[in-house]
Amino acid sequence: MGSMARKERPLEGEDGPLLRFAAALRRLRHEAGSPPYRDLAHRAHYSVATLSGAASGRRLPSLDVTLSYVRACGGDPREWEARWHAVAVELRTESCAGPPQERNGPEGTGSPHGQPCPEVPEGPLRGPYVGLAAFRTEDADLFFGRERLVEDLLATLARRRAVALVGASGAGKSSLLSAGLLPRLAGDEPRRTVRVLTPGPNPRERLEKALAAKPGSGPGCGSGSGMGSGSRSRSGSGPGSGSESGTARGPVSGPGSEAGELVLVVDQFEEVFTVCTDADERARFIAALVEEAERPGSGCRIVLGVRADFYAHCTRHAPLVAILRDAQVVVGPMSAAELRCAVVEPARRAGLTVEGALQATLVAHAHGQAGVLPLLSHALLETWRRRRGAALTLDGFHAAGGFEGALAQSAESLHSSLTERQQWSARQIFVHLIALGEGTEDTKRPVSREELGEDADTATVLARAVALRLLTLDDGRVELTHEALIRAWPRLRGWLTDDRERLRTHRQLTDAARTWETLGRDPGALYRGARLALARDLLTSRDIRLAPSEQAFVDAGTAAEAAAGNSARRRARRLRTLVALLAVLVVVAAIATVNARHAEDEVTRQRNDAVAQIIADSATGLIDTDPGLAVQLGLTAYRLAPTTRTRDALVSTLMTTVRAHAKEVLAIAYRPDGRQLATASGDHTARLWRVHGTDRPVAEATLSGHGDDVRTVVYRPDGRALATGSADGSVRLWDTATPTRPALLASLTGQGGDVRSLAYDPDGRTLATAGTDGSVGLWDVTDPATPALLTRVTGHRDAVRAVAFSPDGRTLASAGEDGAVRLTAIADPRRPRRLAVLDGHGTGAFSVAFSPDGRTLATAGGGHDPVRLWGLADPRRPAPLAGLSGHTDVVGSVAFSPDGRTLASASDDRTVRLWNVVRPAHPTALTTLTGHSTAVSSVAFSPDGTVLASGGFDATVRLAGTDRARVIAHACAHTGPRITRAQWAAHLRYVAYAPPCGRPDDSAAISRPRHGPDADGSDRRP
């Protein structure tokens, strides 16, 4: 059944500032029209649990949460900020007046309500964790867990003059170099000169500065002068982050370590591919760097810190191949013991302890994952700030936002503290500091401070972001402290997704303007024609801010184009067309050569994957505006690279979408014969639709009469009756023997409170009703015109959100907002008997479903694993089988396919996910379906299993076919006009024109779909 916003509990306890503050928040929500908390969550960017907890009266919410709640309800943030501070002062006065043992707030010096006591000094203390930033050399006393890897790196550096340190983003490469390698190199005699640099936009210039002078003693290739590696401020993000050189002393153990050697550390080597845009400059830098280390008699050794997803880029440069083949050290995930050491030892050095439950939680989250160390460090720093006395606790960790939420919470706290104009400036700044990936993940992009502008709003945003360690400002350069922010902050990912193409255009404009300035504003470097038109479009975009140099570049190009006249523009346009055609011919020739040689090397595969993903992104973006074109692009992307992501994009484009109601769709159900679909809505009605496969549904009837939202709908197993339940507290039974003329049979009003869920037993003689009164009613509906209450099943402490009968009708499962799922024996419906209680959904259980064979139960709600599977071999002792993670918000609906091999889950994160549950103890992800613009409330399979239907808060119902071959054949028959050459050129610039639904001989340039399993190993189910 669909997930709904929970009904608030009455405020309890003695009257005081907390209860008065919570009551005021509730009044504000009531004055705003009592929007569901789920709607508030989408506006405020906080979870339902966080926002409802803010108005619970149990503790004072943070100022960020309070102001986000107020803005979502249309309140005055300034007024509520003053209220919050007044309550905080009042709570401090009350709590801190007590004996010392009672003053234990989250920081160890605060009140029980979380506010610091005013009489306890809060001096600047150095935390034992560095947060999002990389470890520096002076942080070596806090750096633990990588001792073995440091030894491996030193040993490799002793054997080879050039070494590559390779690892995923967030694996800790910069920290290992700064806090692991450099202190070891500085530890002993003979003396050793160390220089650290990052490539930046002009890597050869930086290399020349690093090699400008020889060390004072013995042969070498660099000067011992320069910035010390330990001289960087706390805002630095790693070795050489923005600095060009550093010095350290110490030997490299092993043969060949004569005095006067230089060790050149090139951190963030991937900047050669992301920040440096000149291919010739890049090639010359790489050749000079490797030659310096390997020439006879050289006194130089180099260490390269490389992100793993740029490995293939490195293999395209011959000088780097030997290093990668013979002298690479891989930074993989930490072992459990190493993680525990990294968590516990810094705290122990600071005289602190880490609660055992917190240790176990952190190790469980981070074990086996290579790129999570910045999130771990940030979560530990935020937990330290919320410590209790000398202990870091699991409660403090959860208060900080958890493992993945701590960083997002810090970023959201920055955003909510800004004015509307400052929030706009923040968006410009953060997206400007990111280099968009081309077949790789997005990366950070250092820029000069002047490039961001000198206005007061920009200065405010930068100051606050640097204070929170989200940004690094050093030596006139600004950059993200770590790329983990791109992955962990949903708002930033949304900005990048919304503006991706315009951001690419803006990046190209930035590079072009910089080149123009470098060439002394040479008119020959100006934009003309289509590129100038695209650049002018950026001037009218509110979401993109141009730097003064970029504005001048566009203005100069506009003036030059006007002066040149129509003739010059036509010549330039013909030249650009010729160049584009030549580029296409080159690409086509290259593809034909590769096909002729049958050489599918790794580089080609990566290119195809990247191009296919770009095409797939374009396809999903066209679903609502040009569905026919979207399908053809999706087919092209899938045939070019049949990966999980292109498959998901294809299936999403093939869904049939219908706007079913004026307001949100809250529940859906198929008639047992599969020929009719029922929908329930917040517009107080239910509707019946004639359906055939994924063809567009046809409305047959509207059921009205309820006085509030219709929250649930269910067919009797024989399909001749339908039940609807409403927030008005009533259940209505309808005769659907004639689908187009349903007739009201009876109305039940004895449930009490909102009716949230309905279920018929397998023989259709008993109806279960559930609602906000916490009970489940069992009704005799043998004669639906005269229903009779049999009994009530109690036990839940809060509203019951979902009920379901087992296939044999002997067991009833009910899910409640108290987080419990209860199993009740109902072989005799008049005498129900408790079997078991399942826990695990701490923020509420919202949906339950039995597998067709009755041996597995799926439950859904909130928590770390929002979907859980339970074995029911003995219903009195259910066995936990597995938790399904992947959704990023609560899951409100689950459903098994008729054959029991697939489970579908619908979530507030706007996606529907399909899972292979053939082995329920080892489920695997199959497909992620997108398309809904808001939360997905309900999901259901057709009785024959060929269609998956979903309903959402965007008022739409979407139908997706589950047989891929059948769906693709159907798609080509319903795409409308074949994709034109102009459309193809706009989206597939470097791929030969080959319409996916055209003539057989048109598709030669796109590989045909493979039969059997996909290239990613999954089966053919979406």
Describe the protein in words.
- Among the domains are: 77 residues, 434 Repressor (Amino-terminal Domain) (Orthogonal Bundle); 141 residues, P-loop containing nucleotide triphosphate hydrolases (Rossmann fold, 3-Layer(aba) Sandwich), CATH 3.40.50.300; 186 residues, no CATH class; 308 residues, YVTN repeat-like/Quinoprotein amine dehydrogenase (Methylamine Dehydrogenase, Chain H).
- Helices cover 36% and strands 20% of the residues.
- The chain has 29 helices and 40 strands.
- Helix 13 crosses helix 14, helix 15 crosses helix 17 and helix 25 packs parallel to helix 27.
- It is globular and about 100 Å long.
Short description:
The protein is α+β, with helices and mostly antiparallel strands and 1022 residues long. It is 36% helix and 20% strand. A five-stranded parallel sheet has the order 2-3-4-1-5, with helices on both faces. The protein has a four-stranded antiparallel sheet with strand order 13-40-39-38. The protein has a four-stranded antiparallel sheet with strand order 14-15-16-17, with no helix packed on it.
> What do the pLDDT scores average to?
80
Please give the count of helices: 29
Helix content: 25-40%
Q: How would you name the CATH homologous superfamily of the domain at 655-962?
A: YVTN repeat-like/Quinoprotein amine dehydrogenase
Total E-strand runs: 40
Structural class: alpha+beta
Residue stretches low in confidence (pLDDT < 50, at least 5 long) are 1-6, 95-124, 216-259, 999-1022
Beta-strand content estimate:
15-25%
Query: What would CATH call the architecture of the domain at 655-962?
Result: 7 Propeller
CATH topology of the domain at 655-962: Methylamine Dehydrogenase, Chain H
Sheet with the most strands, sense and barrel status: 5 strands, parallel
Taking all Cα atoms into account, the compactness measure Rg is: 32 Å
The rough form would be described as globular
Can you identify the CATH class of the domain at 655-962? Mainly Beta
Terminus-to-terminus distance: 22 Å
How are the strands ordered across the major sheet? 2-3-4-1-5
